[in-house]
Design a protein that fits this description.
mainly alpha; globular; transmembrane; transmembrane helix; membrane
């Protein structure tokens, strides 16, 4: 049996396996870093819901930074982002940059709310920062939408619809089970974190279903 990998196997490793492992490492590193900050006293006293929300917000920030670097440096970004080549990044730069800014603002808004008292931020400060992040993020998300081509516009619509369906199923089921006494009721922050997480899940599902996970 030959030990030489076929071209298809090489593409699979380069475009799927390595990015997946790198993404897992980044996610683990982000969660570990947030945990170290909490253990170090920066955000002591947070509830479990707040800790999870803080990790989710940090992940949004890290992902936004990673894609933003790739969009601004297409030659480098084409090596690890799910694109055909550097030219594709140049063509979609406006959409990607605005989308990254939106993600960073949303992640920062969620993190700010997670740090509300008994965390290090006063409740009023955390609320103002959170609402500002969500509102400004929506502005840049709209700008990204306007800069999108027909395909990406359709992907966004499908991802938003799937997010709503998943949220209805998960949060609705959770609420029903909590009402019946089988589960603890979700904390308010759990609702926000769930929407953030499901938005990412829905996007990956739609991208995969449309065959946009490139292996070439």
């Amino acid at each position: 049996m030959s030990d030489v990998k076929s071209p298809a196997q090489g593409k699979l490793v380069r475009k799927v396996v390595i990015p997946a492992l790198a993404g897992g490492a980044v996610g683990f590193g982000t969660a570990w870093g947030v945990g170290e900050l909490i253990d170090g006293g920066f955000a002591s006293g947070l509830t479990l819901s707040a800790e999870i929300a803080l990790v989710a917000g940090a992940l949004y920030l890290v992902m936004a930074l990673g894609v933003l670097i790739g969009a601004l440096r297409p030659g480098f970004g084409a090596r690890y982002l799910n694109v055909e080549d550097a030219d594709e990044l140049r063509e979609t730069r406006a959409m990607l940059v605005n989308s990254c800014i939106a993600m960073a603002l949303w992640g920062g808004g969620l993190a700010a709310l997670a740090l509300a008292a008994p965390g290090p931020l006063a409740a009023s400060t955390a609320l103002a920062a959170g609402l500002a992040g969500f509102a400004l993020g929506a502005v840049f998300a709209w700008r990204s939408w306007q800069a999108s081509d027909e395909l990406m516009t359709s992907v966004t619509r499908e991802a938003n619809s799937l997010t709503a369906l998943l949220a209805f199923a998960l949060l609705g089921g959770w609420g029903a089970l909590a009402h019946a006494g089988y589960l603890p009721a979700p904390a308010p922050l759990d609702l926000l974190t769930t929407f953030f997480a499901l938005g990412l899940v829905a996007t990956f599902v739609v991208v995969g279903r449309r065959g946009m996970m490139r292996l070439d």
